[in-house]
Amino acid sequence: MAQALRPNTAGGLFATDGKPHPLQDTLLAVTLVLGITAFVTAMFHHLHLVSSWTGLVGILTGAYGQWISSTTRGRFGLVLGLGASAVGFFLGMAHGGLFGGVLD
Asked: What sections of the protein cross the membrane (predicted)?
């Protein structure tokens, strides 16, 4: 039970190993912002260009963030951002796609 009495010496909010991870934290923030933007704009039919493009970029940044992530907390946030990006991307594709109405 000695381990239960040790204080939590983790560095930042997402650095559970006590080391700074600026690239991973930046990718996490970008993925969350893109995911929220894609998810919210997917609820409006006429914003399908915004939702599909932000969803696609959010999926790509989230996938790269998952690939280089080294902490569990960071991965958790990336999964949330990836899910929101995917929903926004797929609804944007259903409403008109990446180029729907632009190339007509």
From this structure: 26-44, 50-69, 76-98
Locate 22 and state its tokens. Answer: 């600026």
The residue among 78, 100, 89, 96 whose CA lies nearest residue 39 is: 89
CA–chain centroid gap for 3, Å, is 33
Instruction: Name the helix (H) or strand (E) containing 48.
Output: helix 48-68
Q: Please state the pTM of the whole predicted model.
A: 0.82
71 touches 24 (CB < 8 A): yes
Average pLDDT, the chain: 87
Q: What is residue 96's DSSP assignment? A: T
Q: What is the residue type of 42?
A: A
What single-letter amino acid sits at 56? L
29 pLDDT more than 90: yes
pLDDT band of residue 17 (cuts 50, 70, 90) is confident
